[in-house]
Structures are given as structure tokens and as C-alpha cells.
Amino acid sequence: MNLFRAILASLVIMFSAVHAWALSDSEIAEVLMTANEAEIDAGKVAKSKAADKTVKDFAEHMVSEHEENKKEGKKITKDEKISTKSNDTAKDLKKEAKEKLSDLKKKKGKDFDLAYIQNQINMHQQLLTDLEQKYIPQAQNPQFKNFLNETKTHVEQHLAKAKEVEATLTK
Fold this sequence. Notes:
Helix content is about 85%, strand content about 0%. It contains six helices and no strands. The relative contact order is 0.15.
């Protein structure tokens, strides 16, 4: 009987831990909005500070693409009556992005270019992983889930392009 209680208690703890990480559509929308804002901010800095034309072009593309995704995200959440909701994941992302941007602003020339692109690779890889493993599986609203899948496609493209740019910088 004690073994049964121990197993049951373990299952309850595991379920609670998994459930604690689950985000609502409103929370996912806030995380995505935060990610877009971080990308836009970093891209704007890179457009003015990058030494390499390819990096500047990539930054300009990131600003444009993430502004468009942010706009589309606002439209789908408005149409589907999904309000954004503050959460620890979004707060942590905002804090991390702010710290990385602060560090990035201290760099110049080729050091800046490489740091920006490597940061882009890391951020897009993390977002891709989170979309695949957390946000898309957890999303409840079908239209919002479709939007997240479309976003995933763009993130994959951004990641691939950032890796191409990195390869030109490290030759």
C-alpha cells in the first residue's frame, strides 16, 4: 500500500510540474509579442552598427519580418479574442533580450557583426524549439495554432539565413 501511495504521489508531482509549464494562448501570445519586440530592437541596432553589408541587410530583413509577424499576431489575437497575458516566460525572455542587447551595443565592427548573428542563431533556435515543443502543442485556438505554425516556418527560414550569414563572416 505504501508503494502505491509513493507511486501515486510521484505521478501527482510529475503532472503538477508538467502542468505548471503549460501556457495559455494568452500567455503564448505575450511570449511571441516579446520575442518579436526583442528581434525588432536588436535589428534596429544592427542596422545602424553593423560593419558588414550582409549583416545590415539581414538586420533590415529581421526588423521587417518581425514587425509583420507582430502585426499579424495582433490581428489574429484580436479576431480570436485572445488577450495577451503577462507571464514568467515572457518576462524572462524580455530580461534576457535586454541584457543581450546591452552587451551587443558595446561591440563594434566585425565583433559586433559576429555577436549579432550568433545571437540571432541562438534566439531563433530557442524560439523554434519552444514553438515545436511547447507553444504549438499547447495552443488551444485552431486559428492561433495555425498562426504559430506559420511563424515556425518563418523562424526556420530566419535561422537558416542567419547561419548562412555567419558562414560568410567566419571565412
